[in-house]
Amino acid sequence: MDSTTVLYIAREEGFRTYALSFQYGQQHTRELESAKVIAENAGVPSHIIISLDARLFEGSALTGHSIVPENRAPDEMTGKIPSTYVPARNTVFLSMALAYSEVIGSHDIFIGINSLDYSGYPDCRPEYVDAFQKLADLATREAVEGNPTRIQAPLLNMTKAEIISKGLELGVDYSLTHSCYNPDRMGRACGRCDACILRLQGFRQNGMEDPALYSSRELRK
Predict the structure, then answer these.
(1) Structure confidence by residue, pLDDT tens digits, 72-116
(2) CA neighbor of 167 nearest in space, from 123, 125, 112, 221
(3) What gap in Å lies between CA 173 and CA 125, rounded to an integer?
(4) How far apart, in whole angstroms, are the C-alpha atoms of residue 191 and residue 199?
(5) CATH of domain 2-57+75-172
């Protein structure tokens, strides 16, 4: 949901968008199927899915090595880094995006991280974005020659409700998006993991029912 909203924000700002998705051993690969459809519908000229060795990210509930937390209250999610934390995930993703940006001559990288309604991940904080920006300013030929790449995180200080409201304003079809960490075999969202709880809360605060598919219709409300 967040990445799709950022894609539409970048389009609104006049950028020609190129998309990267990552297969890193996550159990919820349903998100990659959604990403393909969303990129095609948004007219993205190039959408690359990068496969990474899952051994690099072992130990996370998202890669199948522990239980995905369920039914946690939003205030519980920021108290401790949860088992769904994936080691250095955003650092790996942004590093690859930085390389690709230099290849295609782009000087802007958009990422859908958020520091308000999130599950306590260290790589979703403003100070993390600032630190990676400093790295990007030193890491490439383009930057050293005076053409640095900007790391843009337009959702960083937005609530889920604000993100959804912005996406709806831009015409995002959220029925195509997938957020769940623990979908069933049919790809339907569980409604109980942190990602689902935050997403559902955001739709409720907008006075709406989430259009995504859930394992039970009652979970959508």
Answers:
(1) 887 777 668 888 999 999 999 999 999 999 999 999 999 999 988
(2) 112
(3) 27
(4) 9
(5) 3.40.50.620
Strands 19-23 and 150-152: unpaired
Whole-number pLDDT of residue 221: 57
For 15-33, the pLDDT digits (tens) are 999 999 999 999 889 999 9
| Sequence spans of domains, the chain | 2-57+75-172
What 3-state class would DSSP assign to 163? Answer: helix
**Phi and psi, residue 214, nearest 5°:** -120, 160
Task: Give every CB contact of residue 150 below 8 A, 6+ residues apart in sequence.
Answer: 107, 108, 109, 133
- CA-based nearest residue to 7, from 198, 162, 16: 16
Give every residue of the chain whose pLDDT is below 50, as ranges: none
Largest CA distance in the chain: 56
Q: At 10, list the tokens.
A: 């970048």
Q: Pairing state of beta strands 47-51 and 19-23?
A: parallel
Q: pTM for the complete prediction?
A: 0.93
Count the neighbouring beta carbons within 10 Å of the beta carbon of residue 104.
Answer: 9
Distant-in-sequence, close-in-space partners of 78: CB < 8 Å, separation ≥ 6: 118, 119, 120
